[in-house]
Structures are given as structure tokens and as C-alpha cells.
Specification:
Helix content is 36%, strand content 20%. It has 492 residues and is an alpha/beta fold. Helix 3 packs across helix 4. Bound molecules: nicotinamide-adenine-dinucleotide.
Length: 492
């Protein structure tokens, strides 16, 4: 096997990646029992590497390190914490080519998207570095002379963070950067399916001088790791990005020991396209957005509601754009859309679409697996979907669009809000009164009108309803990792 791994990445000819190791107390190492899990390339289904599988003794070592790391890190001045984050951002930019390649090999997304994701991690580190120096407290006017009423924000303590495989680097970066900037230590469990890009962005921190024990990384059986870490008295905060069912489970575990949580969960984003916009232009913009990362994005536009007069022209253009998407290995320059990230997704997406079609939905394009090697699924557009189809109620998390039509704005908003999800919502209209109504009434944590851009690090990101709570990004980004302490000081 061609093994040309370098210290921080791989060359283009690599077919087997460097081992994905645990980071415990500053040391990158195998698990104590030397157990491993395979890593597959989703475009070829071939094993391309292995990831260390932590046992309880490794988790206990990580907890000890995170406790010690917190005691060190909380007393490091904010400007020095910011300095390390900024230097790590610089290292990420230097290493972008290698990191993007391992990300594509493990997760499947086209190389250009992988590069953009890695570069966004550098932006995220820098944003939190800036915010670290602005975690202000305040003084409250006292009732007596000689009393100082002081509010200080302190780091909450060691954090257990669990991040998913759809953006294995940037989802981890958001939690790491905010927690570290606030002065917390962390045990991170990135996804076992795609571990190496997250390892790369942590390595940038340790290479930039992060003290031992502040960041620890473990992999293994997710349910074993989360139950052990959340129950430990060392952990003071839980942060999760993933599906609603797993989020509810982890929030329950945290509630038993009264630990604060941040839950960035799934979505089922509505898209309202009104008849005052150019249907072809909005269809093209939405197609580019929809098929990014093969639709495996929690804010992916999914339930398309088209106003009567633009229904046909929008649908025609969108279907043409979906058919023009070039599927392939993310590592090939001609590829627009890679495979789904793992066999679970291929099975889940196929089952949801088969269920809808079985109940009478019409397939405007797609509706099938693409080829029989790799987890590829065709860009798919469904129309005339009966209300009882599962796909209208469960997050598809794949390259599929569900099209319906509307005539009345109020009824469309009601339909848009009629799921337990509340993450992202999109609308296309030029009417100011409609924009005002949508802004007020859409039940979503992030709303995009005539624009596809959501989730930049300078803007707050998070859900409503079952899509979760807590915010990442924006000036809100440190808040989940800080605790408010009030001090009344009477001079005697
Ligand atoms: P899943 O629900 O089994 O897992 C989702 C993520 O949670 C994975 O990264 C997994 O490793 C982790 N996980 C699972 N059980 C866990 C546990 N007990 N403790 C800690 N972590 C645990 O499903 P999946 O097949 O991996 O992903 C599919 C679903 O996940 C999608 O339908 C989507 O809803 C959701 N998802 C959401 C996001 C997001 O950004 N909000 C990202 C990825 C996946």
C-alpha cells in the first residue's frame, strides 16, 4: 500500500492515511487496549485507515488531563489564549491542502468544498480569539457607599463536546475555539467515520503552544463515551451537534447531573418562493445551495413551496440544474457532488424516498442510487408528496428536494412552521411587506431571504423548537462556555 503520509497530512498519491490517534494529556497515542476502528472512503468503500478506539481507562485519563488542563488554562490571560488561537489559525492556512485532501478522502465532499471548510476553521479560531478579549463583566451601582457590586464571567469548566461527520473540521472548530477562548478545557469526540480533519485542526493548536491537557481527543463507541463523560463530575458542560434523537438522549443524561448543554440539532428547512421573483434565477441559486455536501447539511433547503404562478418555470429550471450536477469522487476536479458520507446515510435516504414514492409521490428527477460502488445517490426532486410520507416529517439529510405549491402567504408560513424543527428557513421575494411578515413569523433560528448565506462565524447560529438551543458564532459564541458570578465587596 502506498504510504506517503507526512506529519500533518498526506500527499495526493496516498491510499492509506496515517492512524487517527487519541490526544490525551498532550500525547497523541493509540488506546490502552490498542483497539481500532476502520475508516472507509465513501467514494470507493475501501478501507483507507484506522482510528483508535478508546476504552474506559483512556476516557478516565482524558478526564484527569482535562481537569488538570482547566486549572492551568483558566488562569492564562485572555490575550495569551487569543495569541495561541491566532497562531493555530495561521498553521491551518499553511496546511490547507493536506487537510482538505484527508477530509475529502474520509467524508466524500468535493475538494474545493473541503478547502473552504478547512479555511473556515482558521476564520473561526480568529473570531473566537477576538471575542476572548471581550468577555466583559460589569459593575452594578451599590446601595451603600464603599460597596462594589461586581459581575464577572468565568469559564464554566471542562467541556465534553461531540461533533458530526458532515463538517468534521468546522463543526469541531466552532466548539473548540469558543471553549478555549473562554478559558475552558475540552474532551472532544469527533466522528469516527471522518476523524483526520478534526485531528488536524487540534494539532494546529498543540503546535501553536497549547498547554498539555487543555485539548483532549477521543474516539470509540459514541454512546459509551458520552455516558461516561457526561456522568463524570469533572465535566461541567456538554455541547453536541447531530441528530434530534441523539440530542434529546444526551440532554437527558446531562439533566440527571444538572449540567448545561448546547444542542445544535437537525433541521427540515422550508423554502418559500413567491411569484414576484425571477423563477429561473432563484431555482439556479437554490440548486447550487441544495446539492452542496450532497445535501448533508442541517440548514440544507428541503421543503420547497412554490407560489402558483412560478411553479412550472421554477421546477423546470431546478430539475435541469439537478440533472446537470456531476457526481463523482470528491478528489476529481470535475465533481460537483460526492457520495453520501457513509452506508447509514445511503440506506436512510433511499428508505425515505422509497417510502414517499410507495405512497404516491412523483419523481421529477433522480430517486435512485447512482452506480453500485460508493455511497452515491442521484440529486432528487419529488412532487405531489402525500402528507403522511415520512420524508415530510423526518430530516432527509441528503440530496433531495420536496416540492409543493401555495397561493396564500399566511397558509404557506403556517405550513413552513408545521414541523417540530426550527433551524433554517429560506424565502425569495421582492415584496417588503412579505419580508416583514416572514421575518416576524418564521419559526427558525436562522432565516435567509433572497440569499443562501447562513452560518458565517460572525453571525449567531442555532435552532428553535426541536432543532435545539444555544448559539455558536457571533458575539454570542463565548456565552455557552461562561458562567456568571456576582461578587459584592464591602470595603471595611
Ligand atoms: P446519529 O443520530 O446516529 O448520529 C449523529 C451524530 O451523533 C454522529 O456524529 C454520531 O457519532 C453521534 N452520536 C450518535 N450517538 C451518540 C451518542 N449516544 N453519544 C454521543 N454522540 C453520538 O445519525 P448519523 O447516521 O450519524 O447521522 C444522521 C443524522 O444526524 C441526520 O439525519 C441528521 O439529522 C443528523 N446530523 C445533524 C448534523 C447537524 O449539523 N445538526 C450533523 C450530522 C448529522
Amino acid at each position: 500500500m502506498d504510504q506517503t503520509s507526512q506529519q500533518n497530512g498526506v500527499s495526493r498519491s496516498v491510499q492509506r492515511l496515517a492512524d487517527a490517534l487519541l490526544l490525551i494529556d498532550g500525547e497523541w497515542r493509540a488506546s490502552a487496549r490498542e483497539e481500532w476502528l476502520d475508516i472507509l472512503n465513501p467514494a470507493t468503500e475501501q478501507t483507507i485507515g484506522r482510528v483508535a478506539k478508546a476504552g474506559i481507562e483512556d476516557l478516565d485519563a482524558a478526564l484527569k488531563a482535562a481537569q488538570y488542563g482547566f486549572l492551568t488554562w483558566r488562569d492564562v490571560p485572555a490575550r495569551e489564549r487569543a495569541h495561541i488561537l491566532r497562531n493555530a489559525a495561521g498553521l491551518i492556512r499553511q496546511r490547507v491542502e493536506d487537510l482538505a485532501l484527508v477530509l475529502t478522502l474520509e467524508q466524500g465532499k468535493p475538494l474545493a468544498q473541503a478547502k473552504a471548510e478547512i479555511l473556515s476553521c482558521a476564520d473561526i479560531y480568529e473570531w473566537s480569539a477576538e471575542e476572548a478579549t471581550r468577555a466583559y463583566g460589569r459593575l452594578i451601582p451599590a446601595r451603600q457607599t464603599g460597596v462594589v457590586n461586581m459581575v464577572v464571567l468565568e469559564p464554566v469548566g471542562p467541556v465534553a463536546a461531540f461533533t458530526p461527520w458532515n463538517f468534521p473540521a468546522s463543526q469541531a472548530a466552532r466548539k473548540i475555539a469558543s471553549a478555549l477562548a473562554a478559558g475552558c478545557s475540552m474532551i472532544l469526540k469527533p466522528p469516527e467515520d471522518a476523524p483526520s480533519a478534526a485531528i488536524g485542526i487540534v494539532k494546529a493548536l498543540t503546535d501553536a503552544g497549547l498547554p498539555s491537557g487543555v485539548m483532549n481527543v477521543v474516539f470509540g463507541v459514541p454512546a459509551e463515551i458520552s455516558s461516561h463523560l457526561i456522568a463524570s463530575p469533572v465535566i461541567r458542560k456538554v455541547s453536541f451537534t447531530g441528530s434530534v434523537p441523539v440530542g434529546k438522549h444526551l440532554a437527558g443524561l446531562a439533566a440527571e447531573v444538572m449540567k448545561p448543554t448546547t444542542m445544535e440539532l437537525g433541521g427540515h428547512s422550508p423554502v418559500l418562493v413567491f411569484d414576484d421573483v425571477d423563477p429561473a434565477a432563484s431555482a439556479k441559486a437554490l440548486a447550487a445551495n441544495k446539492f452542496r455536501n450532497a445535501g448533508q447539511i442541517c440548514i440544507s433547503p428541503t421543503r420547497f413551496m412554490l407560489q402558483d404562478d412560478i411553479y412550472e418555470p421554477f421546477l423546470d429550471t431546478f430539475v435541469d440544474a439537478a440533472r446537470a450536477v456531476r457526481l463523482g469522487d470528491g478528489n476529481a476536479e470535475t465533481t460537483d457532488m460526492g457520495p453520501l458520507a457513509n452506508a447509514r446515510r445511503l440506506e436512510a435516504v433511499s428508505a425515505l424516498i422509497d417510502d414517499a414514492v410507495g405512497r404516491g409521490a412523483k419523481v421529477a428527477t433522480g430517486g435512485r442510487r447512482h452506480g453500485n460502488v460508493g455511497y452515491f445517490y442521484e440529486p432528487t426532486v419529488l412532487t405531489d408528496i402525500p402528507p403522511e410520507a415520512r420524508i415530510l416529517h423526518e430530516e432527509p439529510f441528503g440530496p433531495v428536494v420536496l416540492v409543493s405549491r401555495f397561493s396564500d402567504t399566511d397558509a404557506a408560513i403556517e405550513a413552513a412552521n408545521a414541523t417540530p424543527y426550527g433551524l433554517a428557513a429560506y424565502a425569495y421575494t421582492r415584496n417588503a411587506a412579505t419580508v416583514e411578515k416572514l421575518t416576524r413569523r418564521l419559526e427558525a433560528g436562522v432565516v435567509s431571504i433572497n440569499s443562501g448565506t447562513l452560518g458565517l462565524i460572525e453571525t449567531p447560529f442555532g435552532g428553535m423548537k426541536e432543532s435545539g438551543y444555544g448559539r455558536e458564532g457571533g458575539s454570542e459564541t463565548l456565552a455557552p462556555y461562561l458562567v456568571t458570578k456576582f461578587v459584592a465587596h464591602a470595603t471595611v
